Amino acid sequence: MIKFLHLTFVLLSISSFVGRVYLAEKRPEILEQKWIKIGPHIVNSLLLLTGFTLVFQGSWLSAEYGWIIAKLIALLGYVGLGIVAIKSQGDLRWKAFAGALACFVYIAIVAVSKHAFLFF
Length: 120
Fold this sequence. Notes:
With 120 residues, this protein is mostly helical. It has one domain. Helix content is 79%, strand content 0%. It has 4 helices and no strands. It has helices at residues 2-26, 34-57, 66-87, 90-113. Helix 1 (2-26) runs parallel beside helix 3 (66-87). The radius of gyration is 15 Å and the shape is globular. The two termini are 30 Å apart.
């Protein structure tokens, strides 16, 4: 059940990110609505909560846990690049957007493979 919730929050999180970047480009005034400002924080908090729950339920901290640290570092990159993508304009927006999506894909691959290095 927790894994299903976690994957649901993953989909909601990436969807809200893509949607907010689109709105920042096409209709930035909509980003000022309170529910659009607060909603992603709620979803992402629940995403982190379910993620930590899965880590502790799976006893993944008792084994090799480098992949969890790699995911957390990539998450910081995703958040930082996401902020740049939403707040900037022009070429920088799209480069940051692509970088954030690359971080997201890396996080997903590491989550499935449990290996921080993709080539091993």
